[in-house]
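hi support,

uploading two proteins for the ticket. first:
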Amino acid sequence: MSFNVNKDKIDELFTRGVGEFIDPEGAFRKKLENDPKSIVIKLGVDPNRPDIHLGHAVVLRKLRSFQDLGCKVIFLIGDYTAQIGDPTGKSKVRPEVDQAEVEKNMKTYIDQVGKILIKDDPNVFSWIRNSDWFTAITDLIFPADEMVNILKINEEDVSVGANSFLGKAHVFENTRMQKSIPNIKGLSVITLRSFLWTLKHITHSRLIQRDMFQDRINKGEELYLHEMMYPVLQGIDSFALSNIYGSCDLEVGGTDQTFNMIIGRDVMRINNQPPQAVLAFELLVGLDGKDKMSKSLDNYIGITDEPNDMYGKVMSISDSLIESYFELCTFTGMDEIKDICEKIENEKLNPKVAKMNLALQITEIYHGRELAEQAQNTWESTFSNKEIPENIPDTFDYDENKTLAEIAIECGLIASKSEFTRLADAGAIEHMENKTAILDVKSIGVPGTYRIGKKRFLRIK
């Protein structure tokens, strides 16, 4: 069956904000143009941290466009692989994450994606954990005295020890998410035997091509086998999803994930499955203007940030990032973005005005027009007119033994003295009544109102 899909809209899906699109035989594009409702798209996320930021949203918003065409998005929670850790972008071994933290972060992720993706229609959305196929029966461990009801005889429960093989088998059988998926095509369980079979078809030289592995080796740093296995495990995820959902036509992620996603093509090919296409997105640069947006670097804008915070953070970005933020974070047309940038370059448009438009659009996407306009009014009155906000509480009593940095940390406005030093060095901490910049981390917090960065305020009584 052929669908009348706008070709220009499809072109933009594969170009706007895209670093690389790998579809050598053109199979994915052809399927999208002719039968988008049969397409399955994979997004894998390791829930190492709870918040989704604008960098993640670049991918999610693209997926929403695919959903609008009828494609099904599989939100794959890497709860199993999160405990290993993808070393992407890491110069050191990534620490393991506790299962309890993974579970907590996973729930947050599922709740937050609903701000962008359609979650309530099983035709275009499904989510699943990769522990569903990587966890074996013998991996299950329960409290020593726990019992499991396995059947009823004459209306009475028959129970066995949860740690017995029969008990574990019963729990395993009844907790597989795959079984609850509508129109499931098949079950997937990855055993050591199937994992080793896959490894037999992927060479060491192939894995070692990964740039970050080469960097590690050239610097004489350790490279562990479990890190090298991560791309293979991610590829096996695609193989498993194809078994369960009938296909895995496309995997999406940042350009730092390109190697892993290509390995997914290899794994599918050696298992006689049609290899997935790969869509890698440009990485959104964070508020520091140099590194990719990351919570660990404290240079991010969370999609659940309060409107005033979100608006203020966008206004704090470097002028050089205006174009990429318009392209990656808004719905503004590419021709209009080009026009805005040309006007800025020709000094026909003040970058501040362009950023106000940008901040308004981004805040509106996640909070609605009314709250976005309120945030803009607050920002203008506070920063453009140099007014002190009225709603700053008296957060701390003066203490001659407390530095401003220590007070700000206690109030939760900054995370550490190193963050305070970074802001002070940038001239971003000010005593507003005295109109003096605070430059020393050892400065005592004297009474008054302080602006810390672009969006945080502190009043000392």
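and the second one:
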Amino acid sequence: MITSNYDIVATMFWNVPYEIGRVAVALAHASVIILLVKGARMRWLTDRLAAVGQMAFSNYISHSIVYALFFYAPGLRMFGQLQRYQLYYVVLGLWIFSLVWSPIWLRSFRFGPLEWCWRSLTYWKPQPMRRRSGIPADVYAVS
């Protein structure tokens, strides 16, 4: 590529093995994830991820609010103050919070708060929010 002075045709030709390798690596990653999920080796994590997914709208909006308050005024104004590696800690902290909080919420309620509002607006009547006592919360159940 250097000897051709990054000619577009030469660059496209030399990038073919790279692109094929990218697809192969993506398929390998997907395969490992599928094997872990199907093998039930990481049931503790997949159950938590399912709960986070069931509350996706509430989690998305709450994350947006928390990050806005963390990075901008009237919050902590941390925008531009952290190094890239420090941002990973902020994101990881909120992910861990969601992975812990979502299953706890769904033990008592059928939906996240915003999912309940959305569903109630869709059907034009308030939907049942609380779970009946004695019925275990199934994060895979679609209500």
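thanks. also noticed: Helices lie at 8-38, 43-54, 56-71, 84-108, 113-123.
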